[in-house]
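job 3f2a | input accepted
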Amino acid sequence: MGKVMNWDEWVDLDAIGLAELVKNGQISSQEVAKQVTVAIKALNPEINAVIEVFDDAINEPLKDGTNPDGVFAGVPFLMKDLGPTVKGRLQEMGSLFMQGNRSQADSFLTEQIRKAGLNIIGRTTTPEFGLCSSAENPEVYVTRNPWNLEYTTCGSSAGTAASVAAGIVPLSHATDGGGSIRIPAGVNGNIGLKPSRGVFSVGPAGSDLMGVVSAQGCISRTIRDTAAFVDNCRGGAPGEFMPYWMPKEPYSELIHRDPEKLRIAVSHEWGNYRATPEIVAELERAARFLEKLGHHVEWVIPDIDFHTAYEAQTSCYIMNFSQVIAELLEQKNLERPPVKLIESMCIKVWEEGRIASYTDRAKMQAAFNQTSRSLGSFFEDWDIILTPTMALPTPKIGTKEYLTTSDNPSVYDWFENLWSIFAYTSIANLCGLPGISLPMAKLKNGLPLGIHALARQGNDGLLLQLGAQIERALDGKWNQGQRPAVHVTSI
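job 3f2a | predicted structure (491 res):
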């Protein structure tokens, strides 16, 4: 199986760039798909990011309804093994319990992805049910960071982030229930946008009203790929509980203009959580960079009740994931999770969540409302909140305290560990805000560090505008132009 171009040429092209070559007849969508399979075959044994390749979609890129006239013109695309379903394909959710689970129909977002011209050619790894921070159960798979194989990719969009970072694909599907797009994007040197509520549908099986915190999206290497993905895949399915909105101008056009001078509030001291000095130094460097771009930058902590917010988030995740597991058990006529097939912390979450009452959920929703209103007021004075993507450095493989294979007896203590490292991302999920991780920084050990920006609800375009301005200022050289150790150019 040959290549249509050399690997240096390949990584110089994003998804839009590849699509332009296909549209001009210089290459075919089948040739592009076959080049991806060469990369997967060469690199996946090291990073373990791709679970399965759909050979039929490689050989016939249009067979499943991919639109050749879409903006992406048949460019290959990987789906995270969680969230939107793909008709006839396995969706095993990172769990031994779900082995062999095959989807019966495309989700609405899957249909949108096909209409946009993306050819779904395989699926990427995720921790069990997307609950924890790393796809790292040796009985299922262990996904490794292409920058350094001793470290995790974080998660839950683990395989997607590793595949994009390694140059296998320029764009891949991701989901975000508390940072699961932005966190792995940050530690793998990618761009990760978590959109506002009301952008991407989770229909017909769910809705924003039911899921509350979860969002769909992508991980990419360029702002224009992310903008095109949002422009062409957004929208609500029939019967949505809430309106799905459209911007006045497509993001793909908006990003060509710099934003006006922005008021940027920089912070990292959120409640009991603080970033390490090394990470704070990188945040300071990013803040100075934005100041040089002409923005007003000031160190200001959002005026919200962080303790109440984190407490409500913990309750939400326990109740939501418990319900997911309960529904899967019901489908299999089981009363309890099988100990050998479902990971220990997922079982503890199920046990804790199943005794929750409507009163507990109402209390959680009241805290969400209070936090959202407070942040809404804050955004009356500020355009952007700037933080690190994570408070602590990327964990090494085998750091069990963040995993659902943890033997921690307390669900609440386990979540406290998560908040201590992932303190800044989940607030966007709670309030339905957009957030983006940009590959602007790095740690002393050479691993990337994302810089995280939040905006008011519906201001996704502003985040992309700012990202595009930064990208131009860097001459497109995210990660200081460096590449991971495991990368297609090393094949």
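job 3f2a | The longest helix spans residues 306-331.
job 3f2a | closed
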